[in-house]
Structures are given as structure tokens and as C-alpha cells.
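We emphasize that the prediction below concerns an isolated chain of 297 residues; any contacts that depend on oligomerization or on bound cofactors are therefore not represented. The input was used exactly as deposited, without trimming of termini.
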Amino acid sequence: MSRPEADYRDELFLPGHLGCPGCGSALGLRFALEALGPRTVLVMGACCADIVIGLFPKSNLRVPVLDSVFAAAAVTAAGVRASLDMQGQEGVTVMAWSGDGGTFDIGLQSLSGAAERNENIIYICYDNEAYMNTGIQRSSATPAGAWTTTTPDLKDRPKKDMVRIMAAHRIPYAATASVAFPEDFKAKLAKAREITGMRFIHLHSPCPPGWRIPSAKAVKTARLAVWTNLFPLYEVEGGRTYRITVPTRNKPLGDYLGLQGRFQDLSPEQIAALQASVDEDWERLNRRAAESAGQEG
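Result of the prediction step, given as a C-alpha cell string:
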């Protein structure tokens, strides 16, 4: 039975979007708007989400949306912020929303420039780990060992560490988040909303067709990425202070890989090598967090 229309009066992300069942981007965008509220302007880089929200002149969003070209989500958002400031409009959040292709690859120069200037925007990269909208091609966010249509022999290079790249700009706030942990994601957005300057959130966002998983397993798969330490949830303030925000369960990486068809051709030796790499990265993150806690103490 459908919900009464009155039930949606406080929703900013309405029913009727065009995303695939289980789409992490649609789920993440709904959470983001719930956290930031109606006084939000959304700048959308060219990505799947452009299609998800509906075709012009209609949209399933109740906030203003400005589309940008693939490479320019960050600088377009900075321009919107400058325009609002010139008009004296206070209390409006400008959020850029772009995929991993438009962030890790094509939009990196625009994003880096905005970070270096410390533009007063929130930039969210929803990361589904490939160019999904155009046919599941490899991006620099694609993890090692994954199949894509342009890596039929499996990708042999590690995923780019985007949060560390952004933290190296010494921006006020950078963090990871997951659609499987909405409370953590919303808490980080609430914190980011109160900070002035550049804020960057890297959102892990499952894509059922691209990851070769059933739609109903999207959230479970994203949750396992955190619990296996492949995608730990943490935040970095000022480029130096690290804090882990969701505790690990230290589950074996194979639990995560085994759910997805894109990893089905990995050998036991390859899985062991990936596990060793995850363990090394997790150790390094824990050292940074411990050092940060010691400095604060």
C-alpha cells in the first residue's frame, strides 16, 4: 500500500527517482538532504545521479539543483557560494555532489583548486568505484582485483586514497562515510555544516549492476566494506587530526569480496595479497588516530 502524500511533506528527496533498485547514490543523497535541510543548494557534476533525480524540467528533489560539466562541480559550487554571499543570503549550504569519475579523475584539478582556496562548500563524492553510468569502466577509485569492462583481466593497481589527498590540502574537514551507516554519515554532515571552509566527504556507495550483486544485498555489501577494514570510517580535521568514527569488526576481506561478481575470478593467493594490503592500511590509520589522540590529550 502506498504512503499518503502528507507523509512526504518533510522529505527533500521524493519518490519517483530513476535510479536502479539498491542504488547507493540515491540512498546517500536522501540521507545528505535529511542532514543538511531545505536551505541547501545542490551542484551536480555529470554523473549517474544527474539521471537519478529526473529529466529536465522535472526533478524528485525539493532543493535547487544546478548541473555542471563533468570536471567542474567544485568550482561551480564555489561560484554559487560567492553569488549567495554577494546577495547577503546567510544560512544556505552549498553542496557539490559528484561520482568517483568526476572527483578522483576528471574533476581532480577543479577540486584541488577549490581545496587550496579553502572554498566554503561541502563536496561529497559518492564512490561506486567505476564509471557506472557509461558502462562500468575503470576509474582510479576502482579497487585492485576488480573486474570492469575495461579491466577484463582485473585491475592490478590500488585505489587512489582520496581522503589523504584532500587532507594534504590542510582543509578544515575531510571524512569517509558509507550509505550502510547513515547515523555516522549524518553526524559528519551536521559537523561539516557548522564549519566554514572546504569540507570533503568520501561516501562509499554500492552499485548493484556494476558490483554484480543483488539489489537487496547493496547495504549488506557496503557494511562489510567497513567491517573488513577495506573502507574504514574516519574523519580528519585540519589535515592532521585523525579519528576513527565506527569501530571495526575485523571480518575477513573474503566475506566482502565473495558477495560480488566483480571479484569472482580472484585466486586464494590474490585474496590473501589484498588482505595483507588492507591490514597494512588499517594499521597505518590506527597509528595516525593514536598519535592524534595523544596530541589532544
